Amino acid sequence: xxxxxxxxxxxxxxxxxxxxxxxxxxxxxxxxxxxxxxxxxxxxxxxxxxxxxxxxxxxxxxxxxxxxxxxxxxxxxxxxxxxxxxxxxxxxxxxxxxxxxxxxxxxxxxxxxxxxxxxxxxxxxxxxxxxxxxxxxxxxxxxxxxxxxxxxxxxxxxxxxxxxxxxxxxxxxxxxxxxxxxxxxxxxxxxxxxxxxxxxxxxxxxxxxxxxxxxxxxxxxxxxxxxxxxxxxxxxxxxxxxxxxxxxxxxxxxxxxxxxxxxxxxxxxxxxxxxxxxxxxxxxxxxxxxxxxxxxxxxxxxxxxxxxxxxxxxxxxxxxxxxxxxxxxxxxx
Length: 333
Hints:
Elements: H1 2-24, E1 26-32, H2 39-56, E2 60-66, H3 74-79, E3 85-89, H4 112-127, E4 136-143, E5 148-151, E6 165-167, H5 172-179, E7 183-185, H6 192-197, E8 203-206, H7 210-213, E9 222-225, E10 234-240, H8 241-246, H9 249-256, H10 260-284, E11 288-291, H11 294-316, H12 322-331
Parallel strand pairs: 1-2, 1-3, 6-7, 6-8, 9-11
Antiparallel strand pairs: 3-10, 4-10, 5-8, 5-9
């Protein structure tokens, strides 16, 4: 009888331990977009899965889901708890995010990694306090590589852009397109391929990685580069606040240990690698690349000066010392 009771106790203890272990594990649902070969899906989330799994001893893992919501709705999708994690384009939600426009300004030269790290430091020091991301944890803010102009017909100068139908995205890119006189076509990034193929747009404002990730090089064979920096696009890696608070101390420590400047540095490096792949693949398809001469760069600077002034006013409206934030941002480059 004693052996039976002892055996039952061991079995019950084992069952409780197994149940506790099972309850301690957490699979975070990631609402993602773009295609499977895009850098975020092909490189970053596999990396992040491995990092969190290793840190937590297998207690944390990711499950990437596509199609939970269109890109402009992903912030709400995570804030409302439909998913635990996502990455968003701040400019896809006009009016909600203003401070993030600081990272998108014309005249900011560099690659994704250098600009993203400077942006993350500026976010931590100046921008986060504006409270534009209530209901979520911002794990990283980052940008894509240098924004460029890719067109189907060749052009000789920026003045030729006047009246051209170009997909310009959101945020500051919209304002730059307006300043240059383009007829803006606003569609999310995944719709650009069809927009070009159907003739709805004659070109696009995009970084080089999209030539491969979104197959832009199949249609747009002419790329124009401004070495001074034309624009970038601000992204955020976000986590639902309730999810974050529901994690164990150990699990939350793994999230906190994989966020901020160090994570942003890794993200930026991955985007730079994606730019290199995009350039390589586009060249195979006959891409023509032209770097704007100084006269064109001066023209661009003159046309877009009001854009910078407007953004500084918008950032200031959120209680941020916009000029100090911009000065700090540039100093970190």
